[in-house]
Amino acid sequence: MNTGDEKRSNHKIVVVGSSSVDFTTYAPRLPNPGETLHGYKFVTSYGGKGANQCVAAAKLGANTYMISRLGDDKWGVEYKKYLKELGVDVRHVTLTCNVSTGIAQIMVAENGENQIVIVPGANNHLSCMDIKAAEDKIETADIIIGQLETPLESTLEAFKRCKGLKLFNAAPAIKNTEFIFPYCSILCLNETEASLYVGFAVDLTNGSLALKKILESGCEKVIITLGDKGAIYSSKQDSKCIHVCCETVVPVDTTGAGDAFVGALATYLVTHKDYPLHQIIGAACAVATMSVTKEGTQTSYPTRFDAFAKEYEYKEL
Q: Which residues does ATP bind (predicted)?
């Protein structure tokens, strides 16, 4: 399914991360603790932050390589086959003996809000040995992506080996993981995750303060996504804090929108590297915005999408 002229170039996006199967229920609203609600639909689909980001990039035409662990159950076998059919290089997606494939139980309300419970399964077995086995792909990658749904020491090992850009999505947020930040070319997180690291509730009014505080942890650039308010970013090299706006839409399902953003960001950083960062971020926001207008996670990610057909509004905070 890989499409687009960029696919014929030699860029290489490597994703080190999770692959999980999503079991999603749809209900009028999210239940309160101890409450049972009647839902109206149930869907089984492919997910996991790592695989989501990889698929988002692949659908946009990127050359993608996945380093991940699946269980030796039917879900693992089917997932690996599915990724391969999308054009993802799965030579380093390993089926793990006597371990279940990771799963996510997702509840989605009519207003697009969601709640998620993750059982990591095989994702917990992604090790530094997997990184060593894929070292030729990692060392020559134009960009490598990592998240926090697999053991962090494996991601850190991959970042140390990669000579290209290191894009780290600090999600789901976990305290005491800041030791990887100095190895990150770009740290990407949403306002909830940023709030955990800076110690106050982050929004557009105090975003510049949050960016500066996170930059002190050692990463080169920080991007904080703000949902329908777009994203803000700053860097060590330029202390300006820039707000990139995005289109407001009525959300249908916000599950996986952050992963759509990360996958698109990585793609455009290598296929449109001469573009200003604010336009690359704007284009990634557009991909994420498109994803929330459809149900599902990977199924909501666009293909054959010209994100640079328009110019994105931005301003200094």
A: 190, 225-230, 258-259
Query: Which residue, 85, 98, 86, 103, is CA-closest to 18?
Result: 103
pTM of the predicted model as reported, rounded to 2 decimal places: 0.91
| 160 annotated as belonging to a binding site for a ligand | no
Indicate which residues carry an active-site annotation: 259
Q: What is the predicted pLDDT for the residue at 9? A: 65
Distance CA 117, CA 100 (A): 16
Long-range contacts of 298-303 (CB under 8 A, 24+ apart): 298/45, 298/46, 298/47, 298/51, 298/52, 298/55, 298/56, 298/256, 299/45, 300/253, 300/256, 300/260, 301/55, 301/56, 301/59, 301/256, 301/260, 301/263, 302/59, 302/60, 303/1, 303/3, 303/59, 303/60
pLDDT tens-digit readout, 196-229: 999 999 999 999 999 999 999 999 999 999 999 9
- 296 annotated ligand-binding residue: yes
Residue 9 three-state SS:
coil
% of the chain with per-residue pLDDT over 70:
97
Alpha-carbon Rg of the chain, whole angstroms? 18
Q: Flag whether 190 is marked binding.
A: yes
The span from the first CA to the last CA of the chain, in angstroms, equals: 40
For 260-285, give one letter per residue: b (16+ CB within 10 A) or e. bbbbbbbbbbbbeeeeebbbbbbbbb
